[in-house]
Amino acid sequence: MALFKKKAEEMPQFDVLPAHVAIIMDGNGRWAKKRGLPRTAGHVTGAKVFRTIVKHCEARGVGYVTVYAFSTENWKRPPEEVQAIMNLLRDYLKESLRDFKKENIRVRFLGDRAPLAEDIRDLIEEAEKSTADKDGMCLNIALNYGGRHELTAAMREMAKKVQAGELSPDDITEEIISQHLYTAGQPDPDLIVRPSGEHRLSNYLIWQAAYAEYVFMDDILWPDFTTADMDAALAEYARRNRRFGGV
Length: 247
Ligand code: IPE
Ligand code: IPE
Ligand code: MG
Description:
The chain is α/β, with parallel strands linked by helices. The chain has eight helices and six strands. Strands 3-4-2-1-5-6 form a six-stranded parallel β-sheet, with helices on both faces. α2 crosses α3 and α3 packs parallel to α4. The termini are far apart.
């Protein structure tokens, strides 16, 4: 912690810092292919970069970081690749459960846990429980996450409440909908960063991203992403003029 604090002081300051940064960690497969390696090698390096960038955002003073680790659509990939990603996640969780004690990060998982392996579900619960009281940066890991799935579940939940007489249809507001999402109580992402050249959301935070600023970094694949690239995205964000429909 102290080390990162010291480093942060030495770093350039930004005029405006996003409260919530969401990252689409993309390009692992292409990175590996370029090197003649199996796609899973890209995920291994990508997982290391994820650790570095999360710590960097914390040092910078970002309040919320959300990373896209696995989408509801990623099950379409070959089973070996899905397995490799799940194994990396398992390793991260085991390692983090030791490290979390020293850190001040609150960890939350966004997505449908039901189809995940039982031991991963247990690790997720343990990670959330053991960090729930931390008051530092909040790290959201979007895992088996899909924006449409999230909205569908929210609508179903609200419909059940209406049916039970706990909620009136006239009381359904934008705020009430937000409260039924995985990100309930959190600020919407201000900045969405996607390396690798794809200019799309891929079903990521579709409700929450309504007024986010997008920074697409075309010349970089996630396993090559550095703290300097993160700073470049933060600097670009600071230059944006956000109007939210006003003047
Ligand atoms: C992102 O990298 C990681 C996950 C989706 C899990 P990709 O695996 O999508 O890499 P590309 O886009 O095929 O290069
Ligand atoms: C989005 O990347 C999901 C994650 C980064 C976890 P994809 O690589 O799955 O997205 P598409 O298929 O290019 O839209
Ligand atoms: Mg991809």
